[in-house]
UniProtKB/TrEMBL annotation:
GO cellular component terms listed in the entry, alphabetical order: nucleus
Name recorded for this polypeptide: Transposase
UniProt keyword RNA-binding present: no
Subcellular location(s) of the protein: Nucleus
Recorded GO MF terms: protein dimerization activity; zinc ion binding
Keywords (A to Z) from UniProt: Metal-binding, Nucleus, Zinc, Zinc-finger
Natural source organism: Oopsacas minuta
InterPro entries: DUF659, HATC_C_dom, RNaseH-like_sf, ZnF_BED_domain_contain
Domain DUF659: 4-134
Record lineage: Eukaryota, Metazoa, Porifera, Hexactinellida, Hexasterophora
Domain called HAT C-terminal dimerisation: residue spans: 330-396
Keyword Ion transport: no
């Protein structure tokens, strides 16, 4: 299985993701994975961090060790590095980019767009709405007679929001609004039996209106989240997703909400995102502001100086790039990286290396989050005697495509 993994990663420039969780014994575990351009994720490191505080310095040691061992074991190059946005992770990423071990390869590090969208969802929460709906849904799900009456009306499965699962809040709001007339009828038909507090909450039109307003805020974020947590969503795509979200929120929401969207937008997108968007043949930086274009080109001039003339020529659709390469039919038929690879005979090798790195970077660390789901299945209450190392090996076997 290791040889199969090496065969898939050999010579590739890959994005790396790092995240932590607690196993069945409540022991802290850090997992590291890489993703290929085809969207296949490979678990490369499982680290039991028991006895170590998750400081930025310690996490930097874990990350540096993971980068070195992954490159040596699988003969690949780590081009980008993404984590969640906890303060220790943010500090670790800053230190990692200045680390003498990693600066030779100019690893690009940034925060997970999916986590930033999740934080944005919390920023614009309407207080109290979720708590009311949770109380109502739990009552009709867990109380025998009301549950039976609700089921008799033809009601659908009830959805509760979960803090650890993205997009369950809009799903729960959507479900509540769809079943509201059914549970209102149950409350009316069985007013002598239904809990009075629950009946009052169901009949309270303000709670329903607030739920509608809350869902209106959450829906564009839910759509954006679904896009960025895909392994096929790259840095260049993330820019377009955030731009679309800003446009949607600007047209629908009051300024107090749009300001919060703008704040998270600035945190999520870096100069590397802008450079990736500039170099993506589908986008070519068309939707970027002048400041964003300048930030992307400045990064290129500082860290990839020899590539700057080519990037500028590409933006202008000048030589050596032919006009037919920018037609809609071509851009839809092939991936951005394949587009650049097809031109490598006319380009400097440094340009192709940059393309593999910048266009291969994934928008989020959702790939390693999905590995945690497999970890939870393997290291369960039934198989609770497994050690972290053995559980990690089993997850590797299950996860490897």
């Amino acid at each position: 299985m290791q040889s199969q993994c090496k065969e898939q990663l050999d010579g590739k420039n890959v994005p790396m993701m790092l995240d932590g969780w607690s196993n069945i014994h409540n022991e802290p575990v850090v997992c590291v994975s890489v993703t290929t351009s085809d969207g296949d994720s490979y678990l490369t490191e499982t680290v039991d961090t028991s006895g170590h505080a998750h400081t930025a310095e310690y996490l930097q040691e874990v990350a540096t060790s993971a980068i070195i061992s992954t490159e040596q074991r699988y003969s690949c190059k780590v081009g980008t590095f993404v984590t969640d946005n906890a303060s220790n992770m943010v500090k670790m990423r800053r230190q990692l980019t200045s680390d003498s071990v990693t600066t030779d390869t100019n690893i690009i590090s940034y925060g997970c767009s999916a986590h930033y969208l999740n934080l944005l969802a919390k920023d614009i929460e309407i207080p109290g709405v979720k708590e009311h709906i949770v109380q109502i849904v739990k009552y009709f799900r867990n109380t025998h007679l009301p549950a039976a009456w609700y089921k008799f009306t033809g009601g659908k499965k009830l959805v509760l929001p979960q803090e650890v699962r993205w997009n369950t809040i809009p799903d729960s709001l959507q479900c509540y609004l769809e079943i509201w007339t059914m549970i209102l009828k149950v409350c009316e038909d069985h007013r002598d039996t239904i809990n009075g507090t629950i009946a009052m909450k169901v009949q309270n039109i303000n709670i329903k209106r607030n739920a509608e307003d809350y869902l209106k805020r959450m829906k564009p974020i839910a759509v954006a989240l679904d896009k960025v947590q895909s392994d096929s969503c790259k840095l260049s795509d993330a820019v377009e997703v955030w731009k679309a979200l800003k446009r949607d929120m600007d047209s629908l929401m009051p300024s107090i909400v749009t300001h919060k969207v703008q704040d998270r937008y600035k945190q999520a997108l870096t100069a590397a995102h802008y450079l990736a968007n500039l170099m993506d043949p589908r986008y070519r930086g068309i939707n970027l502001s002048k400041d964003e274009v300048d930030a992307g080109l400045e990064l290129c001039s500082l860290d990839y100086t020899s590539c700057l003339p080519t990037v500028i020529n590409f933006s202008a659709e000048a030589g050596p790039f032919k006009p037919f390469m920018f037609t809609e039919e071509v851009l839809k038929a092939i991936s951005p990286l394949t587009w650049w690879e097809s031109q490598k005979s006319a380009l400097e090798s440094d340009v192709i290396v940059l393309c593999r790195k910048i266009l291969g970077g994934v928008a989020s660390s959702a790939g390693v989050e999905r590995i945690f789901s497999t970890f939870g299945f393997v290291h369960s209450k039934v198989r609770n005697r497994l050690g972290t190392v053995k559980a990690g090996k089993l997850v590797f076997f299950i996860q490897t495509p």
